[in-house]
Amino acid sequence: MIPHAKSGKLRLLATSGTRRSSLFPEVPTVAETVPGYDATNWWGLVAPAGTPQPVVSKLNAELETLLKSDETRKRLEGEGADVIRMTPPEFGRFIGEEIVKWGKVVKQAGITAE
């Protein structure tokens, strides 16, 4: 999508996050028109429940090193991603909040597993 938008073949109307994109700062967010709107995608690294804390700490430290590298940051930002680092407890809370938020959407829309 990015090459098409930059070439003018695609006209961006809005982005779905709460902040404007660093790649397209002139494009408004949906939240600027619909307060509270936030429908962003995200990625994270998780481990099975019960993973020993030293293993979680080691994985987190390695991920931090990777995300701080210029090569990784430039690649992710070039794809339109905003790198937001969280501690394991912060990420756990974030996932919980996402489950609640999207659970309400599923319920209100009447979506069921079939």
So how many helices? 4
Secondary structure category: mainly alpha
- The percent range for helix content is 40-55%
Taking the alpha carbons of the first and last residues, their distance comes to 32 Å
Provide the low-confidence segments as ranges.
none
Mean pLDDT rating: 92
Radius of gyration: 17 Å
- The proportion of residues in beta strands is under 5%
Strand count: 0
Largest sheet: none
SSE ordering: HHHH
| Assembly state of the chains shown | single chain
Shape: flat
Strand and helix layout:
Elements: H1 2-7, H2 53-68, H3 70-78, H4 88-109
Task: Walk me through this protein's architecture.
- With 114 residues, the protein is mainly α.
- The protein contains four helices and no strands.
- The model has no long low-confidence stretch (mean pLDDT 92).
What characteristics describe this protein?
114 residues; mainly alpha; 4 helices; flat
In short:
With 114 residues, the protein is mostly helical. It is 46% helix and 0% strand. The chain has four helices and no strands.
